[in-house]
Every structure is written in structure tokens, then in C-alpha cells.
Design brief:
CATH architecture of the domain at 717-863 in chain B: Beta Barrel
Chains: A mainly alpha (310), B alpha/beta (864), C alpha+beta (278)
Number of helices of chain C: 7
Structural class of chain C: alpha+beta
Strand content of chain B: 5-15%
Number of helices of chain B: 25
CATH class of the domain at 717-863 in chain B: Mainly Beta
Helix content of chain B: 10-25%
Structural class of chain B: alpha/beta
Number of strands of chain C: 10
Distance between the termini of chain C: 57 Å
Shape of chain C: globular
Shape of chain B: globular
Oligomer: heterotrimer
Helix content of chain C: 25-40%
Strand order of the largest sheet of chain B: 22-24-23-28-21-26-25
Radius of gyration of chain B: 27 Å
Largest interface: A-C, 82 and 80 residues
CATH topology of chain C: Alpha-Beta Plaits
Bound molecules: ligand MGD, iron/sulfur cluster, molybdenum atom
Largest sheet of chain C: 4 strands, mixed
Strand content of chain C: 15-25%
Number of domains of chain C: 1
Strand order of the largest sheet of chain C: 8-1-10-9
CATH architecture of chain C: 2-Layer Sandwich
Radius of gyration of chain C: 24 Å
CATH class of chain C: Alpha Beta
Amino acid sequence: MSDTFVTASPHWTWFIIPYFFVGGIAGGAYFLAAALEWFGRPEDRPVIRTAYSLAFWGAVISGALLTIDLGKPFRFWHMLFQSDNFPNVMFKGWSPISFGAWAIMLFGLCAALSMIGAWTDEGRVRTPAAQPLRSGTMLAKLVAGLGGLLGFFVAGYTGVLLTVTNRPIWADSPWLGGLFLASGASTAAAALLLLAPGRGATAGSLAWLESFDMRALVIELILLVLFVGWLWPIRQVWLSVWGLLLLIGVVWAGILWPLRLHARPASAAGGGGMLRNPAAMVLIGGFLLRVVILLASNGIQHQMATAIRR
Amino acid sequence: MGSNMAECHPVAFRWPMKAKLNGAKLIHVDPRFTRTSAVADLHVPIRAGSDIAFLGGLINYVINSQRWNTDPFFKEFVVNYTNAATIINDDFKDTEDLEGVFSGLKGFKEPDFWPENGNLGAYDNASWAYKRGPKGPGPATKDLIAKRAGPPFDDLVRSLKPGPAERDATLQNPHCAFQILKRHFSRYTPEMVEQVCGSPKEKFIKVAEALLENSGRDRTSAFAYAVAWTQHTYGVQMIGCCALLQLLLGNIGRPGAGVMALRGHAAIQGSTDVPTLYHSIHGYLNAPSALRPHETLRDYMAAETAPTSYYGNTPKFLVSYLKSMYGAAATAENDFGYDWHPKILGDHSHIAMFSAMGDGRVKGMCCVGQNPATSLNGQATRRALRQLDWLVVKDNWLTETATHWYLAPEVKNGEVKSADIKTEVFFFPSTQIAEYDGSYTNTQRMLQWHSFATKAPGDCRTDSWFYHNLAKRLRKAYATSTLPRDQGWKNLTWDFDPDPADPAYGTALYPGEISALKVLREINGYQTADPKQHLKGFGDLKDDGSTTCASWIYCGCYPAPDQNMTARREPDPPGVPGAHLKWGWAWPANRRVMYNRASADLKGNPWSERKRWVWWDPNFVNPPDPKTGKPVPHGKWVGYDTPDFAATKAPDAQPKPDGIGLDALSGAQPFIMRADGRGWLFVPAGLVDGPLPTHYEPHESPVQNLLYKQQSSPVHKVWSLGKPWNPIASVGDPKFPYVISTYRLTEHYLAGAMSRWLPWLAELMPELFIEIGKGLAQEKGIKNLDWVVVSSPRGHIRAKALVTDRIGVMKIAGKTIHHVGMPWHWGWMGLSTGDVVNDLTAWVGDPNVSIHEGKAFVCNVERA
Amino acid sequence: MVTITRKRAAVANEAMGFFTDTTVCIGCKACEVACKNWNQLPSTHGGVSEMSGDSYDNTRKLDGTHWRHVKFIEQFDGPYNGRWLMMSDVCKHCVKAGCIEVCPTGAIIRTEFDTVVIQSDVCNGCRACIAGCPFGVIDMNMISGTAQKCTLCYDRMGVGLEPACSKACPTDSIQFGPISELRTRAQKRVDQLKAQGEMRARLYGDDPNGPLGGLNAFYLLVDNPEVYGLPANPQLPTRTLTKSGAMSAATAAVLGVLALVGIRKRRIDEKEGATIDV
Ligand SMILES: Nc1nc2c(c(=O)[nH]1)N[C@H]1C(S)=C(S)[C@@H](COP(=O)(O)OP(=O)(O)OC[C@H]3O[C@@H](n4cnc5c(=O)[nH]c(N)nc54)[C@H](O)[C@@H]3O)O[C@H]1N2
Ligand SMILES: Nc1nc2c(c(=O)[nH]1)N[C@H]1C(S)=C(S)[C@@H](COP(=O)(O)OP(=O)(O)OC[C@H]3O[C@@H](n4cnc5c(=O)[nH]c(N)nc54)[C@H](O)[C@@H]3O)O[C@H]1N2
Ligand code: SF4
Ligand code: SF4
Ligand code: SF4
Ligand code: SF4
Ligand code: SF4
Ligand SMILES: [Mo]
């Protein structure tokens, strides 16, 4: 029996799952935007702008979900400042939730700045103060650079957060951070593939996105295999609906099937239905990944430990 | 054995656990593996109701063991301190001779005026008596009665002295008590124990060996029992059997020894000392009865006084009691008002009264601090309650008894309509113990005073308030009556109102409340002439009316208005034997171990250094006698405890030929409440169902009695015999093949009003369940937590199954018998509710004390 | 500036805690009720709950409203043949406490008695500590909206009182006192049990050099810890922080490289005039 079986579930469920999902997309999107901001071309601007919006709204939604999930939402700020020694800062570099909270804060800030820049670009914002944030400026690049790094951080720390617990599945391997990160990247690319065309993305940008998405999926698959392999000693945890969902929903529908669609582009051209759209499938798979990881662990309760105890 | 101490007396269980840490061995004999068994060194399973076979087996094993026959301690103790050597009448016939009954068995005919006694038969115990020499000279008792002799009543008591009992100190005489019991128990072999009790032979022998090993000069063993030994049709005999064994092992009157009754409710001991019992008046004197020769004061004294024991003082106890009842109106001329005192008609115990109620012979009932609608034989009890004109329930909670008329299962399922019930029900909210001052007396006979912690909310009043005001009103109502039967009420003294001018006895907590200290004074006693002169002890009691004392055994607990011994809270320091004589006050006379003269040998020396408790100090310089001023010879009983003996009577003192009371006993007869100063192995009088314990089957049993032809006790009680509300299963009835026992859980209290309303307790044991073994569960396809229906001839109820190996199958008489068990705390009120287990039990009980046989009957279990 | 450090704060007083001798526990649950009483904790569904079917255990686990919990373990091979283990479980007041490590608000503190206390007015209910505790001790209290657990009766200790649970324990299964003293006493008891033939007797969590730097609520067991639902080798949640962080960083690096490689490939492809794979 794994030692983790006797621990208690933190009940992170229907606020945290979408938070992890949205946070992953937001972080991944910002990273992709930053990559294009630095190394892309002007024709990538629609994608960048889409990514900035994704990152910004993703950060807002993430923050909201995270806050709502708290038992005492109005004490959200206790994670940032020492409530009994205000305004001393509350920061624990060894606690993922603590540094994660700061990361989301800063990430949101960067995303907001980048978005203002993008809006300025589009002419939606006209204040002179926002001009230095226009795309292409050094400031925009710096903000994007920082935000991009934070983006990967935000996408990946959620996995580390789960690992830095004593819960079954989560704490039993070091791979969750990477897995969530890869998944964040792949879902971000997929989300951009779906949204960017509406904002005038060029074929060149989309092609790059798609090829990146497929590579990220491969990395994700490798990490998933490592992750599941690491859990071999407690393989009984997969003998549940979650194991099935992992296999069908995440591995097949979310990774293998999109990869296959991609490898045979002809079939994709046929159009029609989500099943034919690799990006949609990637998003579904990415969501299910988080559902499976969170709920499979949450499901292992005291009762199960009792049954194991003899 | 006979209790589940860890679960039912968890706080007291601290001490067995401490003993265990000090190396004591703990054994638990119980049909279930309980929380007591869990911490015991040995658990021995036993079929409910078979304890006499087990104990009898131990007795047989002990008296035939090498250790018992070679260690001189046992002989010395048994020959001198018990009645082993006493010769019994020649015409006594044992169960050995009569296939399971004793000589003297006759039929029992219910008297017309009270046909609710329930006895199936009765014994004439004349043949069980000691064989005696001729009676000494002196006036005959009947002449003294005719002459209205006394007070003082010493001559009357002296006239009761019988001739000397014959003894054979070699224990060889076939008619001596020892030889009789040896023959009696010879059938109780380890093999027989295994057959009858279902207890594995090896485990039984382990118990016997442990007892032998841990008894003797240097070691003692104790038994703790509670209602697993009382709730049987031979419960008193079970306890007697244990006492017999302990006397044989020298385990009575010594530290770490004895037969400990673990009592139930807080102050339930007090409730029998200052009794709410029908059959005795304060201090265990028998209540004047229409069925006994109790016509006049002197008749009562003649019938109830054992002249050659401390009970030789009965006239003093009785007269002081009557003075407490009738005060100044009680005079020597009117026999201290004896004729005004009510007399009982027969069995007025709980079930007898409910049986009478069921027959329409009881009009009203005050139910104060009891919940009979679920606590005893539910359906028959509720049927009886519906025959009442009025019912008063005084409780802290709306109990099942208070709500039976609209919420009982039979009302809910339409069998009974509320509209058809004519009973008028009154509910009085009561205070809780923390809301008033008073004392309680618990298991170790110790009185402890408690002060109120908080005032009761709303209209809640104490029970003493209720009875105090009821008594005052009744007195007023009878004040003008000239009927002879009302003279008792007219002359009753009732002085419990607090006196604001004299706060010595406290002030009232609630309007109309009594002074609790005045009640304590009444119980303790005082000089009639000056109520502020409290009595110092029962040695002060007089039979001429100059002392007033409600309960002689409590005399001394409140020796002066400013000296409430029960309020003392001074424990002994660590490292001493720990009699804790300054903590509270224990009756009699603050003794913590009764009959503790037996902790010393014949010469008054401790049996061993390790077991030193009370001993004779020959050099003690006594002050002169305070009454006569005469010098008293050196020597006194001293020790850690208050010696339970005449303080300056030397071990070699001889009985005075003309002596009564303790003067009739020698210095080496420790059992001063017994007429011969000895522990009774053979009980010549006092028990209605035989002088020696005998294994009978419970009234309902799946098997035949393996030991005798007589199946169950020939004289036990069945109330409402043959009535449809009390049907009984026949022996081995295939419809009810399982043995069932009912019991308690730590988490709940009795009928549950005090625990099922409390969320903290309700969540700990939220639902009624039945514990069944894995074998039976498999056989019946019952899984853990399945709902099952449990039925007996009286009814059926639902419960969840708790499938466990802690209870299970037994081999009885070669038959496979499944044993199941249920806690009985549930009812329909409260947060945690459940069916009423007592809907399964029968109106069947013990002939001595009329307790119901709730511990062993038969049932069936099916999946719901 | 009040800095938050990971170093264990120096403890002002002698370390205090519990030694629980499970061999004398009678499963009376007085400790559970005393704790609820003192801390005024509510009951499951106000007391209207269902039985669990797990022996006599109906409160099932430690959580935000059950800061003490008595476990019942039936070890039987057949009718009447076996033993029934009981153990009153509580927060272990770990010397290296996982809950403190992960708490992002600093709500969980180490007190001057070397005990671990959640300050309910600081906690924001993020529940990291629940998952971080190796023993499953903490859970939410839905009424306060915060994570809660045993405080080792910090409020009582402050005024020189013994914790409510140990005070109520009739058999002294729960013993309260200075840890050093308790350790000596516990070792004596193990020796006694071994001398009586109970060779499985052992202490759990008494070793300051053992897991988590020792537990300030430690136990005497007579079987493997797993039998009692205790982890054999409790660990800090942060044990994989570095590894996991490194793996994530590596993944990030690989993905970054892949992204850049893609951009570069696009450039090269275009230069070579290749068509774009749409
Ligand atoms: N928590 C709690 N404590 C209580 C009470 C309560 O309701 N709850 N009630 C109080 C009261 S009023 C009383 S009278 C006492 C009663 O105290 P106990 O007599 O100890 O209580 P029970 O649980 O009725 O029965 C004890 C044990 O008897 C076993 N048993 C049943 N039949 C037999 C038998 O024939 N022989 C033997 N050897 N064992 C048998 C049962 O399995 C059970 O374990 O407890 C008092 N203390
Ligand atoms: N099948 C089965 N039946 C049994 C038993 C068994 O073992 N098996 N055990 C038997 C035994 S030993 C007993 S003692 C009986 C107990 O049976 P009961 O005495 O009928 O049951 P309790 O629940 O103790 O009822 C006491 C009531 O007094 C109330 N009360 C508490 N304090 C006060 C007070 O100060 N004043 C007033 N007026 N009320 C107060 C409580 O709220 C409670 O309702 O049950 C017996 N019934
Ligand atoms: S309920 Fe009261 S009397 Fe019974 S064990 Fe607990 S403290 Fe003692
Ligand atoms: S047992 Fe759990 S809750 Fe208690 S101090 Fe240790 S980590 Fe914290
Ligand atoms: S729930 Fe409260 S105590 Fe626990 S980690 Fe979060 S803030 Fe800290
Ligand atoms: S120490 Fe206090 S808070 Fe902790 S379990 Fe005991 S009673 Fe409850
Ligand atoms: S109070 Fe003591 S004996 Fe009772 S369950 Fe708790 S630890 Fe065990
Ligand atoms: Mo009782």
C-alpha cells in the first residue's frame, strides 16, 4: 500500500479543474505569443493578439476560479501579504501555491500590459501612455518575454502543486509539472488554431501553430507514459472509470487521434464535426487529462485505505 | 464476567487497566468479544445464560485441585470464615437427589387480592436449615409479643435465639455444607462446561488455573459483574455462585478481592439504600408485608430480626425509622405508629405493576426518570400504559413514554388509534443533576455530595420539588380524614422546607424547593429531642424513640450540621494503599471493604504483608468506656480502612452465652451481618430459589438442560402468563433458532433519551444494529449493513446488520447454535432513532428480585 | 520586515505532546467527545447520520470537525479468534510539518510548545495543507470555511491546563506531557510488553532522527503502521519539489526549443521555397 493512500483529499474539483485547464491554455498561449513577439513576423500579429487576449482573459478567469474555490474568498490576499503583518509580503518559494499565487498575479499583469499593447495596435486604445506597449517595441518584447516565461510557469506549476502533496497519483511521480506544461502548450496551440482564424491569422502562422501543437502532443504523450509508468506500484488506482477515461479520453481522443488526423491531412480536409478537428480534440483531451488526474486522486478516500488495511 | 466493564463503566475501568499495567491478569467471559475483551489477557466466549454452569465448573475444579487441597490457607479460611463445616438438616434433599430441584418445592397459588406475583412455583425452605441443638431457656417469643414487651426489645430479640448449629470442622460429615456442595457441583466438569456454555475447555481451564494461581494468602482475585448476571430467571443465583467460589478461594473481605456489583444509573445504589424499591424500607429492612407475619410491631421484629448478628439491632433501626416517619406522633404506646405504615400485598415490582396495569388494576402512574415505553418489554408495556386514566411523565426530554400515545409504532401503523386512548398524559420538565444540590451513592456504596453548577432553564423543577409539594398537598388533603388507613398521612412529619431564619441547612435554589441538607439530616438521624444533635453513627441508635433516623446504614454521614462527610474531597496521597477514607463517605460507617475482618487471620494478623488491610493491634491503649467510665483492656482493630468489626473485640473473644447482636459472635467470625458470623456457601434462608446455585436454562432456550431433567428454574416468574401480549417460545422452537442477548454501548445511555438527543453522541452510534457472526450471515445471505428483520414470539423489529467475528457460532450440546446480540438504546424520539429492541423481550424474570430476563432469549433473523 | 523562512523556529518552551498507548485504549471515544465539547465542534449532519459498518467506527476519519478519531480494527481469523485494535488518532504535530510547508498564507504556525496550530483567522481555505499532510489529518470545517485540526488545545495549554482529550481519557491511553519524558515512559512500556510476549510492540514517531524529525504525538502500536492506517514512511510533500520543478523546467525548455525550431524551420522552408504544410 502506498503511504499516500492514508491521506485526505483537498476536494479540489469543479473550480480547480477548469482553473488548471484555463490556466494551462492562458500560460501556453502567452508563451507562444512571446515566441512570436520575439522571433515571429508581422504576419503573426493576429495570432499574437489572439494569444494575448487568451492569456489575459485566461488569467482573469483563473484568478476568479481560484478565488471562488477558497473557503474564504475574501482572504485571497492572505496568499500575497502577511495578514497579521500587512504589508509584509507573504511568499514561500518552497510552496507551489504560494509562488503560484504570485506567478498568476504577475502573469496577469504582464498579460494585461500586452493586451493593452495589442489593443493600442488595433486602435482600440488610444491613450498616449499605452503607446510604448505597442507591438514591436522593446517594452512590449520585454513584457512578453517575462510574461511568456511566467506563462510556462503558470501552465506547469499546477502540476508541481499537485506533486508537492502527499496524495496518491499526484505525489507518486515527478512528471505532473511537465505533463501539465506540455498539455498547456498543446491546448494553447489548439485554442489559438480555433480562435485565431477569426482574427485574421495567416496560413503561415497557423501552420506553425499546428506543427507546434503536434510536437507538443508527442512530448505530452511521452510524459504521460513516464507518469503512468512511475505509478506502476499503485496501478490499482486506474481500476476505475478514471483509468478508462485516461485511456480513451486523454490518450486516444486527445493525443493519438489528433496526431493521426494530422498525419493524414487529406481526411482532415474533408471537414465536418469536432471529431475531424484535431484542435478541438486536443482541447477535449487536455480538459479530460485534468479531470482524470484530479478526480482519480480525490476518489481515493479513507474507505479505500480501510479496505486495504485488511 | 457478567459485565462489559470497559464499555459500561469506562471511568471505573481505569482501575482494572492500572492493575493490568502493574501485572494483573484480566479475563473477560462474555458471549461477545467486546471492548473489554479487547484489552483483556483472555476472552472466553460463553452462551448467554449459562454462567452458573461455568462458575459451577470453576467451583468443582477448585475444590478438586491440588493447590486448593494442599495450601493450608484455603482450609483455614473456609472452615473458620464460612459455613462449610455447618451441618444441614437431615431431611434436606439436593438437586442431585431430585433431578434438578431442591426439597420443599410446592405449587404457588396467586392470592386473589394481588394475582400479579408471577411465580411459577415456590419453595418451603424449612428443610434447608442448619441442624441445631436445643434452644436455650428463656421466655417464649409469642409470650413476649402477647405481653407487648419493650422497649427495650432486647428480651424479644434474645427469645429469638435458636439452638447452636452443629459443625464438623473436618468437613467430613456428609451433611455438612461443604460435602453437600461438593456433591452438588461434581457434575460440573470442564467437558460439561464446554457442552453447556460453548466455552472451549482449554480456555475454561486457563480461567480456573489463573484464579487458583491468583488466590491465597498473598494474592487475591476479584469478579466484576453487572446486569449480564442479573437479567436472568436465576440471576441472583449466578451472583451467589460467584460469591460461593470467592469464599472458597478466600477472596472476600480482603483488598483486591470480592464480587463487585457494577451498578447502573448514577445513585442507583442510593436508590436501593434509601429505597425507591417496593419491598424494603430504608437500609434494607424488609417492607411490612401482608404476606408475612408482620401484624404488629413486635410480630415484625420477631420475623425480621436475626438475633445473632448485627441485625440483632433491627428494633433500634426500625423504631428510629418510624420516628423519622411519624415524629412526635410516634410513641411507645402506639408502637411508634407501626400500624399506620403501609404494607405491601405481594410483588409490586416493575413488571408486576405493568402486568396489573395491563389488567386494568392501576389507574395512574408517575413516571419520574424512567422510560418504560422502550426500556422494558416495549409492546406489552405500551399496551399497559394505554389502560391508564392518567400518566405523569417527569423528564428532561420528551421520552417515548411521554409520546407513545401518538408516535409509537403501533399508532403509526394504525393498529392503535390515538383517539381511542383515554389516558391523560402530563409532562413535567425536570432538572438535570448539575442543576441542584444533593448526594449520590454509586457502586462502591460511597456518598458524594454535589453542588448545583447552573440553574435550570424555564419551569424545570427538581424531582424533590415535585414530591415535596405533592406530599404537602396530600397531607393537607388527608388532614381531616378519620379513616384508619389515612392516619399515616395525617401523622406524617414532613420538615424539609428551608428555614430562612436558620441557614444552617441551606437555602432554596428554586421556589418551593426543599433543603437538601435537611433531607440528609433526616437520613443520617438525630436526637429526637434536639434535631441539631446529629447522630454520629448507628451505634447511637435506640429502640425507645429517643433517636430518629430514616436510614440506619447512612447514619454517620452527616454527624454535625457543619460536618457533611459526603462533601469531602481529599484523596490519599500516592504510594499508600489508597482506602481514600477522606473522600466522600461510604456506608456502613465509612468502610471501603465490607467484612474486612476477613483480611486478617484467626489471630487477627494480616494473611500476608502484601494483603494487609485491617488487623488486630494487641498493644493499642484504649481510653476508658465513655458511657460507664470503666477501663477497656488493651487491643484494637486498626488498619487502612475502617474495621468492619467490634472495634475492641479481641480475636480470641468468645460469644457471650446470653449475648444478642455481635455479643453472640466470637472474635473470629467476620461476617457480622450473617446470623452465624460466617460467609454462606450454603444459603439456608433468604433466597426463594434454592440454597445452592444450579444450572437452569433460560426461560426461552434452543436446547434442553444438559445437567438435569428440570429445564428451567422451577420457581421463576412469568407475568401475564398465557396472555396474548406475552407469548413464549417452546424449548428448541425451530421458528426462533438463535440465542440473542441485549446490551449497552459506551456511546449511548439506556433508553437513549440522555444520549440520542445529543449530536455528539448520536453521530458516534447513529443507528440500531444487530451483531451477527460471519457464519450466520453467510448462511442467510446477509451482508454487512443490510437491513434485517429480527423476530421473537413477541414481535419483530428492523435493524442493520453488523457482520463480525466478535460474535458467532457455538457448539451447545452437540448442536450448532448461532449467537447474536443487539444494543437496546433506540426508540422513535431523538436525533438518532431506531426500532425498540425491547419489543422482542418477554415478561419473564428472576423470582428473588423480579428483574426481567433481558439477557438470554431466542429469536430469528432474516434479510429485510 | 517579517520574513518567512523555511527554517524551524526555535521553540521557547519544552516540546509538549502526546504519547498514545494504543494497547490500553478501550475505544470509549471520550476523547472524541471531549474534544468536540471543548472546541464546540459540530457533528456530522447534526447527529443524524448513518452507521459506517466499519466496526464501531462511525465518524470514520479525522477532519475539520473531528479533531480526534478513534479507529477500530478487527483482526480475526474466525469466530472469537483474534484481536480488536483501537487507536485514538490525532494530528501528529510533526517536528517537520508538511502542512506548514505548503500553507501559502502562513496560517499554520509552530507554537512555543512545539505544536502545530492553524490560525483560523488567517487561513483562507485553499486546502493545500489537507493534501500536504502525510496523515490525512486536516480537512475543511464548512462552518468556518477554513481548514481545521487539533490545536493540541493551545488555548488550554496557555493557561496551564491539560488538553481536553487526554484529560478525559479514562485509561491514560492518551498521555500528555513533555516529549522527552513521554519518550522514556513509552520505551519502558514497550519493554514491558515485549517481556510479556508481545513482540510486535513498537513505537511510531518517537524518533527525532526518524521521519519528519519525529512526531510530537507519537504512538505505541502492536502491528505494522499500515494496519492502523498510518503511513510506514511519512514524508514531507516538498520531497519532490526540486525534481518536479526540474522536470517541468526541462519540459519548458524542450517545448521552447520546439517552438523556436518551428519558427526557424518556417524561415528556412520559405527560403527554399517549399510550400507550407497546411
Ligand atoms: N455507556 C453506558 N454505560 C452504562 C449504561 C449505558 O446505558 N451506557 N447503563 C448503566 C446501567 S443502568 C447498567 S445496569 C450497567 C450495565 O452494565 P453491563 O452489565 O456491563 O452492561 P450490558 O451491556 O447490558 O451487558 C454486559 C455484557 O453482558 C454480555 N452478556 C449478555 N448475556 C450474558 C450472559 O448470560 N453471561 C455473560 N457472562 N455475559 C453476558 C453482553 O454481551 C454484554 O457485553 O451499565 C451502566 N453503564
Ligand atoms: N433488553 C434490555 N432491556 C433493559 C436492559 C437490558 O440490558 N436489556 N437494561 C435494564 C436496566 S439495567 C435498566 S437500569 C433500565 C433503564 O431503563 P430506564 O430507567 O427506563 O431508562 P433511562 O433511559 O435511563 O431513563 C431515565 C430517564 O430519566 C431522565 N432523567 C435524567 N435525569 C433526570 C432527573 O434528574 N430527573 C428526572 N425526572 N428525570 C431524569 C432521562 O432523560 C431518561 O429519560 O433498562 C432495563 N432494560
Ligand atoms: S457516564 Fe458518568 S458515570 Fe458513566 S462512566 Fe461516564 S462519567 Fe462515569
Ligand atoms: S500531522 Fe499533518 S496536520 Fe499535523 S502537523 Fe503533521 S503535517 Fe501538519
Ligand atoms: S487551507 Fe488554510 S491553513 Fe491550509 S494551507 Fe490553505 S491557508 Fe493554510
Ligand atoms: S488536544 Fe485538544 S484539540 Fe487536540 S484532539 Fe485533544 S482536545 Fe482536541
Ligand atoms: S478516551 Fe482514551 S480509552 Fe477512550 S477512546 Fe480515547 S484514547 Fe481510547
Ligand atoms: Mo441498570
